[in-house]
Amino acid sequence: MVGFVNQPKSIMTLSSPSIEGEITVTKITMEDPYTEEAGDGYKKLVLAAILAYDETGKVGRVENEIYVLSETLSDRYEEYGWDDFVSRIATVDPQDPENSFKEFFESLDRETDADDRIILILAGHGGIEDGKYFFSIKTYYILYPIITNDVVLDSDSLFYTISILGPAVDFIWFISCKSYEFFNDISKDRLQSVFDSLIGWAYTGKVHVLDTEIDLNATADAYREGNPPLETIYEDIKSCPNSAAGVELVQRDYYPGDLCLLSLHPTSTGGGGGGGARPEID
Questions:
Q1: Which of 2, 49, 53, 202 has the highest local Cβ count within 10 Å?
Q2: Which CATH number covers residue 124?
Q3: Mind listing the pLDDT tens digit for each residue in 270-282?
Q4: In 3D, which of 92, 119, 83, 86 has the Cα closest to residue 219?
Q5: Which of 42, 44, 43, 124 is CA-nearest to residue 87?
Q6: Residue span of the structural domain in which 198 resides
Q7: What is the pTM of this model?
């Protein structure tokens, strides 16, 4: 069951070029339409990315880098025993952003199960209102090129939508300003009750979407020839002097052992990196 509630709110400045744009908060509640008790034995490595509709053009600029990461993993998945690689990269439909966003996840849920690994990327503008994180699924001009309005989802709506994918999701990457607040809004216990094992990447402050291209390229480069743990890639990005966005990048690690995206199963290196072995930043 899916419900939408549109709630126009007072003025808020998201991390877009707006001066004083309004936001419309859209709440989504979902039940999993494609429940599955177990996998089908056919193991798929899946890269899924949903990009917000953005008339400013900034969000769309990371699409190429997402495709590069997808192609890099696609070139190598067979080496590690996966049966198939699936790439799903889409932009929210501005004519019906709520249903477009919801249908992306329903379609992804329909073609995946517990045997698969989903790498999930969400790219869009983000901000804080009343102490809670909001992710814009549609940013549009009401006075070009100065003022924009936004249609946004709160953390609960994001969680309800993503959670229909279940434990197949091992990695979520929020490419938006203030996105780390999602992991403050949604507790570790709540996340693990759905996803079991998970690594999340997000940004603590204001980041320019263009700067995150460096982080995406660094991740693609790491998997071009090797299969390093995500935890190691994270440390490398954090130490990279060229990544302005990397300064704001934060990792939540609820994964046992190390998460090497190309590997079928978790690896254990005896320390550092997995399942809470790293200290959390609160």
A1: 202
A2: 3.40.50
A3: 333 332 222 233 3
A4: 119
A5: 44
A6: 3-32+43-254
A7: 0.86
